[in-house]
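Sat 14:20. Reprocessing the chain from the morning session after the first attempt stalled halfway. Input below, unchanged.
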Amino acid sequence: MRAPRAGACAVGGSPGGCHGDGVALRGRSAAAAMSSERGPALPFLPGCAFRDPTPGTRCRCAVPMVPSSTVELVSKSVMSSLTKTSFHRSQTLGYKNGFAFSRLPTVGIGGERLYVNQLSQAELDELSNTRPTLTYGQARQAPPSGFIPAHVAFDKKILKFDAYFQEDVPLSTEEHYRIRQVGIYYYLEDDSICVIEPVVKNSGIPQGKLIRRHRVPKNDRGEHYHWKDLNRGMDITMYGRTYHIVDCDPFTQAFLESQGIELNQPEKMVFDPYTEMRRMPLRMYITPSDFDQLKQFLTYDKQVLRFYAMWDDTNSMFGENRPYIIHYYLADDTVEVREVHKHNDGRDPFPVLIRRQRLPKTFVEKQKTFPSCVLEISDQEVLEWYTAKDFAVGKSTTLLGRNFFIYDCDEFTRNFYRDKFGITDFQPVDIKEKPPEEVPQVIPPYNGYGFLEDSLQNCFSLFPKPPRKDIIKMLENDHKVLRYQVALESPNPEDRKRRFILSYFLSNDMISIYEPPVRNSGIIGGKYLGKTRVAKPGSTTDNAIYYGPSDFTIGSTIEVFGHRFVITDADEYVLNYMESNAERFPAATLQSLRDHFRPRQVVEETAKSDVPALGTSQQELDELIVRVQEELKLHNYLNNSSIREALLRCDKDGSGVLDKAKFLSLCNSLSVPTNAVLVNKLIELCSCGEDKINYRDFLKAFPS
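Finished this time. Tokens:
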């Protein structure tokens, strides 16, 4: 068999037998090819080799004689009929370790390899690398490329566009539309948009954030505005309002140009015509003054004229003359009026009556409807302002409707007026008011209710205070009481027999009178006079003189609220107290008490020395009874007949002997001085044992 010529296929050796895919078109050439696979029928030279044309295998010759699509179709059908010898399905049931399991087929009908159920090339590569991994460990993979999320990459990166929108003004005759400038902010991190209108003072329009930050819808298809949709010189509609973008900031321009967006030329911002009309100042043609205010300020800075003035407000209700201080500041010709407060003047401490300002002196003639009370006063309404020459001592000045009379000034003001205006008359005006005549206070007469000092406080104050007390005297003389026996001086014979106990309290100089009850006297005893201060006869409410311990002598008469009492006796404590404080009492009072107590002291001394003992004779008992009778004469208030009747009434059996305890209680009820030494000794002599007494011998001292 001869070799094919150049350009011919190895199958059949004829030109056009193969077209790139090495597919024979003749049966004979295919058989020759198969025989060449079994044995070397063809020389193994370039262009003469032949292999079994399985899927994916091509003939090495490539002579394009016919269209490739036709050759490929024919070659596949011919080769499949030449090489496929097995047409059964692959086994999918397998056994492992005695257990049946299903497996995927690896080849199809005719022995063709299936790539559907096989591993991919990436998986094969991974499996090929598994063995070195088990041996040498996990291979280090290259770090992934850095990923930056949008909210980090575009954090705080905002695109700002200057825009405006126009709104109609239907209810105004001065403007028909309004231009409102806004700023459109686009946040790159989340593609949100916020529209903010700068706040204009006194605009009367709710301004600020018009559209809150969020993703603004672009149309009804669910799309949102993107930064690619924004550019200068374009209109953008958001929620029915059209904004015209005129410009952007440098950062926005640089960002958009970096993204390849061609920006339009910037436009000028359109302003509101009505606002601009109001901002236009009125043209005024005023000849500038040649007065140098800066020179005045530098020359007279911190130099102030001070005037002392009075505001006469007596014409109004509850008005008065009030002092003020007028300050005139030479630096800018301003005036300030300050109040002068005095201690306990009853006014709130407002320091300034008129704040520092230029005060008008003469106004321009104006219409009656000019609302001057609500408008600031300017040079157009004032012809003349107050200056330093308008203030002078001894003259009145009207400041904002108030008439101030200047009566004096300080030394700096005098020197300024002397050097500036040549004024030398600064005689201050005496404005002191004459003190009002004192109206004598007439104190009403004492009505007898309460203490004199306590009632007098109602005449001095609306809320009377209690009179002050001598606390030291109260502490030193606490519980110290001088007791006297007094008799009522009365033309009625029944009242002349009444006896009272007068107590004088040294702590507060008060007197109380108590009447001991006497049985069958017909007079109810008890408190006769409560604790009170008793004034002497002839004393007045203006100069009240009260009774004191010096006025209480034996036999003296005191008058207590129209009742006259005679002092007949006193306690021994009175004599002891006056003798211990002899320098505080008159000698006559002390001598009167000594003369009164001398007979009693003599009797007591005699009783202590000459009292007969028990078992004495009847003569000695009689002598003791005589002495007791002499002592009882001092107690002229005792009623002997009542004592005798009371003792006889108690002795029901007529034995002449009574129980000693009962006898003593009966004597105490009849005011018998059982504590006296001689009387006590008489009771001992008349005693029969420890609990009995012979009252018949005791009654001998009380003759009827």
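The chain has 19 helices and 24 strands.
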